[in-house]
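User: Let's play a game. I give you a shape written as tokens, and you guess the letters that built it. Ready? Here's round one.
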């Protein structure tokens, strides 16, 4: 028996532990661990380099005024990541697969195109962020950072061939590094707690530029690819044999969403707080990641700059891996087409190489990519609301009325902000 146990992979041991929980043999904290992982992976999308770009601009230019946007976006993210996880757990299919099965073919193709554009915008932000981190760390040109990032992320993606657990553990390690880095930064640059509380609780948009940035924050926080991916990660992870087991798995999933997304939300708030404390009073012009890194050293010491760089690197590498996983799932489940990892990676890396080759400002490209994501966001949001609210899809697990109303209001809020942004951009 011990020889058999030794031969089991980490993923197989996790599935066996999950079965023990469902059969009542494992309780307490040990009962949560086998079901932890999907929301942790999804949470990486909420602390990616796009968040660094938008949050640094928000904190340096507007102080704590846009913290409420992060809070609102994080609540919306919790709701929709929870619904995505539920769809995968209850139906055994991903969001993209459900769309393919239940929507007209022309609509499915249109949704796939929009989702692919969102996936490429996502990977642009994540790939550029990791490359910038390596470039600053090693003192190499940004193009060299791109090549190094491509090699490292491809090596990390190979872990997915060993089952779901190894890649979950690596991503969890990156998340811990990001969170730990910003905990240190909060001690190095303590925020003004009064203005922080007001900014988090009282909505305000100081000017037109803050609206663009607010939509960018939402695009950087509520991520289309994360909504798609979460349903893929939870489907048949620990297969449920009846509705009672599905209900228990769903409770574990909801708890993980609250913890993982709550942690990501605190990290985003810490990003804005750090930028507000370090830059807003004396350096409001700081709007680029590279400038923030070089300014932190003289202001707060080399240690603060190094910690910032470490968090950026962990964010870029982990989110780039997750973005590729999501893009692969979107194509596979919408079209039944699966590309080799190296080809998928090459396609999604191409825009980043083009941006660098053309000399486009990296941080500005990151912020604009988040606006693109926000414009693409209603596609998975509306599909998810429709699918999880229907009994023919979810059975007795269809959304309760209050959940459905909350989801519709959240989707309408995002749509409304997008319309306002488009009108503002058209006006010039």
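Assistant: Ready! My guess for every position:
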């Amino acid at each position: 028996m011990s020889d058999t146990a030794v031969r089991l992979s980490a993923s197989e041991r996790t599935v066996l532990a999950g079965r023990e929980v469902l059969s009542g043999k494992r309780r307490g904290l040990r009962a949560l661990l086998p079901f932890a992982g999907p929301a942790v992976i999804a949470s990486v999308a909420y602390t990616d380099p796009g968040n660094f770009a938008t949050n640094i601009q928000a904190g340096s230019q507007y102080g704590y005024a846009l913290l409420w946007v992060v809070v609102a976006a994080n609540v919306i993210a919790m709701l929709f990541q929870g619904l995505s996880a539920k769809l995968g757990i209850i139906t055994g299919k991903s969001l993209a697969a459900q769309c393919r099965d239940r929507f007209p073919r022309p609509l499915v193709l249109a949704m796939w195109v929009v989702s692919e554009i969102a996936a490429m915008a996502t990977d642009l932000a994540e790939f550029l962020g990791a490359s910038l981190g390596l470039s600053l760390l090693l003192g190499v040109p940004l193009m060299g950072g791109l090549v190094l990032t491509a090699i490292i992320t491809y090596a990390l993606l190979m872990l997915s061939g060993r089952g779901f657990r190894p890649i979950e553990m690596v991503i969890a390690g990156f998340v811990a590094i990001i969170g730990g880095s910003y905990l240190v930064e909060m001690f190095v640059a303590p925020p003004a707690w009064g203005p922080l509380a007001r900014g988090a609780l009282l909505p305000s948009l100081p000017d037109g530029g803050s609206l663009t940035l607010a939509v960018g924050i939402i695009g950087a926080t509520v991520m289309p690819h994360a909504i798609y991916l979460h349903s893929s990660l939870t489907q048949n992870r620990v297969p449920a044999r009846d509705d009672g087991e599905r209900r228990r798995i769903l409770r574990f999933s909801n708890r993980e969403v609250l913890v993982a997304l709550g942690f990501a939300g605190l990290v985003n708030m810490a990003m804005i707080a750090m930028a507000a404390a370090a830059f807003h009073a004396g350096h409001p012009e700081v709007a680029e990641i590279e400038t923030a890194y070089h300014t932190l050293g003289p202001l707060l010491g080399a240690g603060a700059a190094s910690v910032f760089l470490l968090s950026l690197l962990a964010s870029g590498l982990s989110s780039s891996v997750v973005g590729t996983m999501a893009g692969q799932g979107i194509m596979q489940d919408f079209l039944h087409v699966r590309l080799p990892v190296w080809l998928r990676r090459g396609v999604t890396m191409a825009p980043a190489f083009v941006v660098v080759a053309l000399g486009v400002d990296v941080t500005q490209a990151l912020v604009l990519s988040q606006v693109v994501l926000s414009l693409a966001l209603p596609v998975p949001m509306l599909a998810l609301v429709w699918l999880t609210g229907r009994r023919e899809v979810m059975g007795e697990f269809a959304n309760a009325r209050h959940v459905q109303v909350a989801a519709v209001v959240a989707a309408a809020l995002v749509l409304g902000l997008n319309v306002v942004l488009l009108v503002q951009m058209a006006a010039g």
